[in-house]
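seq:
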Amino acid sequence: MRTREKLLDFFEKNKGAYFSGEELAARLSVSRTAVWKAVNSLRKDGYEIDAVPNKGYCLSADTDILSSQGVEKYLEPVCASIEMEILPAVGSTNDYLREKALKGQKEGFTVLAGEQTGGRGRTGRSFYSPADTGIYMSLLLRPENCSPAVAVKFTTMAAVAACRAIEKVSQKKAQIKWVNDVYIEDKKVCGILTEGAVSLEKGSLEYVILGVGINVYPPRGGFPRELEETAGAVFQEKKSDGKNRLAAGFLNAFMELYRGKTEQDHAREYRDRSLVLGKDIQVLLPEGSRKAKAVDIDQDCRLEVEYEDGSREKLAAGEIRILI
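struct:
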């Protein structure tokens, strides 16, 4: 580990505390010059490091920059298999991770980025991913003997996990718009895109890439006009370690669901968090749209709808719009 990474790891574990250059050099087994260079390198990347005569250096408690050191300090034992890579920017975290998956990367590898220049949502639509305001991450899964037909459960688990993480860090109520969007106060703050590959020989999933984008803060200058009525953010102003806590909170909650809890428990919570039940909706189908009422969500997280003619259908995937 380079001096810069060693210093950041130490600062993250002792945020808000001052240490002299001499003490830091001794703790890291490097020279004071190496410490000074590492401090300057971190400052160039935006880290707020105070330097006070006779007190030393201190990583400001207000700092909120996504880093592996910052995320790892909040991870729980259930995330022992998680290995992370942090990128300042990337075209798409899902595309980047797919290349890793094709080369045999192990389950649990997670890529996080501060910006996506080609982020995608469902049906190929772009996902707005500006720099410095959000968390854009993809997690690699290799489930055993898993049929593609039940792959939607990873999306619904991720939605529940995102809600738990957001509520724990922000104390704001988070709800789910079927099937893959998370909302706070009627504004979308998180989107999920699940992709994967199927083994033709086995007829089961070879790997799953779980992509999650969270709007942590509003972008400078606000959201683009086409999003300003529907998009929101978890926080309106900077919070200490907001990004790292949210990223770790999601991984903790998702891995707990993935490794342990029964699907019935997960499905029940998914239903309880629904913001569409009882509402009039528009179901978007390949052959056109139909008006319906959202009636129920079953244990497989399928949305049961009742159309205007009285017929009912359970939707395993698709897209809906809430009618006002």
